[in-house]
Each structure stands twice: as structure tokens, then as C-alpha cells.
Amino acid sequence: MTRYDYSNKKVLASTLKEMAEKKTLSKITINDLTQACGVSRQTFYNNFKDIYDLVEWIYLREVVTSIGRGVIYEKWQDALISIFQYISENHVFVLNTYRSFGKGFLERVLKQEIELFLSNQIFQKIEVSQEKTRQVEFSYSFYTYALVGVGLDWIEKKMPETVEELVGRIEKVMLGEVISLL
User: Fold this and answer.
1) Residue 41: which CATH number?
2) Among 61, 80, 137, 180, which is most buried by a count of CB atoms within 10 Å?
């Protein structure tokens, strides 16, 4: 990808987020977006398949930036706070995505980032014998689905508690299981 392509992606992404402040994502057309950006439809299609592809790129780029791909946090809670902080700071866009594209879309994006978080921050540090491997794999899967579910529930309820309160409640639950594995 050339620098020009990345620049176009950033312009399309920021314009879409601005438009999503006033209009649901499901009502924003590629024509609306390209006119607002001052680029051609072909420029859009050179970079993305459709609006869904652009929205996914936005989440993966911004969430990965917020948690730092490959960064190992001193405390796993800090990484989790970064993920939920992104959601909180971008709540209008996140809620618009949820309402426009449905729960499944956000679930897929959250699952990808939660798996990264769990593998980098927690399960990478666990050394287990062969007989405990299945339990660790089950725990990894369990916590992925639990955290995604908690995140989606928090989004559905329009984020009624602060990020710190949410992560504090998650911490109380996780410490019981994860500490015993460590």
C-alpha cells in the first residue's frame, strides 16, 4: 500500500466518523461519503469493498492503536481499560455501528481484540503441563466469550458505568480463576 492509499483511507475513515455523528451508518452511502471527502468512488473501491469493510478497518486500526499491538502491559487490567476506554470515547460511533450493523458485527471485532488481549496479557504467561492444556484452552475460550458478552452488554445498555467500574467488576471475577491457573 502506498502512502497515498493510506492517506485516502484515513480521510475516508475520519469523514465517515464525522458523518456518523449526524446520520446512521446504514443510511450513509458510498456516494455520500466520497462527495464529502472530495474523492472518486473508484478511490473508495481501491481501498475498501464496502462501508462495512471501512468500518471494520476503523475499529481494527483504532482499537489496535489504543491497546498497542504486541505491547505487554504490566497489569492486564490496563489493557482491558484501553479497549473499553476506546469504546467509551467513541460511544456515538460505537452505538451507531451497533444500531446500523447489528450485534454480530461488533461481536466479531471485539472478539478479535479480546483474543489478542488475553493471549498477550494473560495466557502467554501461563506455563502448564500437558494435562492442564485443555483447561487453559477452555479458560481462554470462556474468557473471550465472557468479555465480549460483557462488552456488548455494556454497549447495549449505553455504557451505564465508567470504564474503571466495569474493569473493576471484571477483575473481581477473573482473579478467582486466572490466579489459580497462574
Assistant:
1) 1.10.10
2) 80
Please check whether residue 105 is in contact with residue 97, taking contact to mean a CB–CB distance below 8 angstroms: yes
Among 175, 7, 11, 161, CA closest to 87: 161
**pTM score:** 0.79
pLDDT, tens digit (0-9, with 9 covering 90-100), for 94-110:
999 999 998 899 898 88
State how many domains the chain has.
Answer: 2
**Using alpha carbons only, how large is the chain's radius of gyration in Å?**
18
- Same domain, residue pair 38 and 78: no
Q: Are 63 and 77 in contact (CB under 8 A)?
A: no
Q: Which three cell numbers stand for residue 96?
A: 451507531
Which tens digits make up the pLDDT trace of 70-96?
Answer: 566 677 788 888 889 989 999 999 999
Residue 7: what residue type? S
- Residues 40, 78, single domain; the answer is no
| Domain coverage including residue 150 | 61-175
Q: Are residues 80 and 129 in the same domain?
A: yes
Contacts 24+ apart (CB under 8 A), 164-172: 164/81, 166/84, 167/77, 167/80, 167/81, 167/84, 170/80, 171/77
